């Protein structure tokens, strides 16, 4: 089992150039649970995740890991606790899937990067979990978008961190593979207690798979809490400017958002 770390966002402001994108956000990430950050385009979702991952220097406030500013940690120390799959990851030309996933083990290796049996087992587990074991020798550039995304997720899993941040992990995946990836993340959470924070665009998948939602609007937290407690038609229309109906999924008991467009099919 992983260790439950406290991850607190304390009056955090982030931005690019002169533009502030995340404005004075405070929240606590539930440890050992799955949190989904949702919101309309340009609401600050990915920027908030980048701030938690130490990729952006705070303009104000801080991200606290176990009560201390995360910026106080060395890059390697932070990478042993928090793993990140960014929205548009890049890799060297010609890299194979096996080499890519192996890079997830760098934070656990010493100065001379000696490969150990633990590293081998971690990589094998990550490959098996993502269904990429048969792609080990393939070059990343030769794969389909869905295969590449699963390879990147395998690299993040191989890092074996207590906290895992994912920016739109279902990008480039068809619906079947989106569900497979989210099932995989739930398995990781249930089996190892990994705290997972992910940005998702698909509202119904966020409601189905997340224990906790953070809805962003114009750089601030509009609402947060359990999906069943915070997702209703008024909230969706306010945050997403989307008229809708919200019903309860009879199988999962989670909210199901039904958009109401201008053109509606009648029976």
From TrEMBL:
UniProt-recorded Gene Ontology molecular function terms: ATP binding; ATP hydrolysis activity
Record membrane topology: Peripheral membrane protein
Main subcellular location: membrane
GO cellular component: plasma membrane
Keyword Coiled coil among UniProt keywords: no
Keyword Nucleotide-binding: yes
SUPFAM superfamilies, alphabetized: P-loop containing nucleoside triphosphate hydrolases
A single BP term in Gene Ontology: iron ion transport
Pfam families: ABC_tran
Cell location: Cell membrane
Swiss-Prot/TrEMBL keywords: ATP-binding, Cell membrane, Ion transport, Iron, Iron transport, Membrane, Nucleotide-binding, Transport
TM segment ranges: none
Family matches, as SMART domains: AAA
Domain (ABC transporter) ranges: 7-243
Protein name, per record: ABC transporter ATP-binding protein
Species annotation: Agromyces albus
Species lineage: Bacteria, Bacillati, Actinomycetota, Actinomycetes, Micrococcales
